[in-house]
């Protein structure tokens, strides 16, 4: 059961779980606030805790509001596109052949058939992004399967509007947001590790945090950096 605490213009969704400590979170992109408390916590105690953290909540929401957003891509010549955290300029070549993308130093070469629209160009780029991710993801999963002593039965790459990744711990599957191809590779690795830890502990419990802390000590810095990088211009829904 979820209850709500109202603090002025801020609504906080409160849930209780079998954990030891309170977890307060401000979620991108719009600053939704959640508070997860130990099972026996009274609502007035949770409210008092939230009030004590009001300054921090407002600070986090302000960061999200001021966060840079990518302008919509038109897939035209000399347009900026990010790849693994670095900016590249796009060159569009029109040729009557199967569309493809190639990387030439700091330039992305997009070859499309004459008359192709922005939607078709975006589709070609997205398929290329997935191929680049596949090259990296497999090696990261293999590395962390050994360290965490878990097995990923399958992974999927897709556009995701509200998450960088997700995990179905029962099926042993993880899903990754294709937007990760635009971020530095160490942030892709962090998301993979985060989701793989869910194969051991499905919830964001104290045990989950402990396992993540032990195996990926810089996870807080990685999470903060990931949420400070430009968001896609696509509409995000919570």
Can you walk me through this structure?
With about 240 residues, the protein is an alpha/beta fold. It is about 35% helix and about 25% strand. Strands 1-2-4-3 form a 4-stranded mixed beta sheet, with helices on one face. The chain has a 4-stranded mixed beta sheet with strand order 5-6-8-7. Strand 1 (about 5) and strand 2 form a beta hairpin. Helix 3 crosses helix 4 (about 185-195) and helix 4 (about 185-195) packs across helix 6. It starts with a strand and ends in a 10-residue tail after the last helix.
Distance between the termini: 19 Å
Q: Which percent range fits the helix content?
A: 25-40%
The computed structural class is alpha/beta
Reported for the largest beta sheet, the result is: 4 strands, mixed
At a glance:
The chain is of the alpha/beta class. The protein contains 6 helices and 11 strands.
């Amino acid at each position: 059961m979820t209850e709500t605490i109202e603090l002025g213009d801020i609504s906080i969704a409160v849930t209780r779980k079998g954990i030891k400590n309170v977890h307060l979170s401000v979620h991108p992109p719009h600053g939704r606030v959640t508070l997860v408390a130990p099972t026996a916590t009274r609502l007035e105690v949770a409210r008092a805790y939230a009030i004590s953290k009001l300054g921090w909540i407002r600070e986090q929401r302000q960061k999200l509001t001021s966060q840079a957003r990518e302008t919509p891509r038109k897939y035209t010549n000399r347009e900026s596109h990010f790849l693994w955290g670095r900016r590249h300029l796009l060159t569009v070549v029109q040729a009557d052949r199967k569309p493809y993308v190639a990387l030439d130093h700091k330039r992305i070469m997009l070859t499309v058939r004459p008359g192709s629209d922005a939607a078709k160009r975006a589709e070609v780029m997205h398929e290329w992004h997935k191929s680049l991710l596949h090259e990296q993801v497999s090696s990261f999963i293999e590395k962390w399967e050994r360290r965490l002593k878990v097995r990923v039965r399958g992974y999927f790459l897709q556009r995701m509007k509200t998450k960088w990744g997700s995990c179905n711990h029962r099926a042993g599957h993880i899903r990754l947001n294709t937007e990760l191809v635009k971020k530095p590779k160490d942030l892709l690795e962090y998301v993979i590790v985060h989701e793989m830890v869910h194969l051991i502990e499905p919830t964001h419990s104290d045990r989950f945090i402990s396992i993540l802390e032990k195996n990926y000590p810089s996870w807080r810095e990685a999470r903060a950096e990931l949420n400070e990088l430009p968001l896609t211009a696509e509409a995000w829904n919570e």
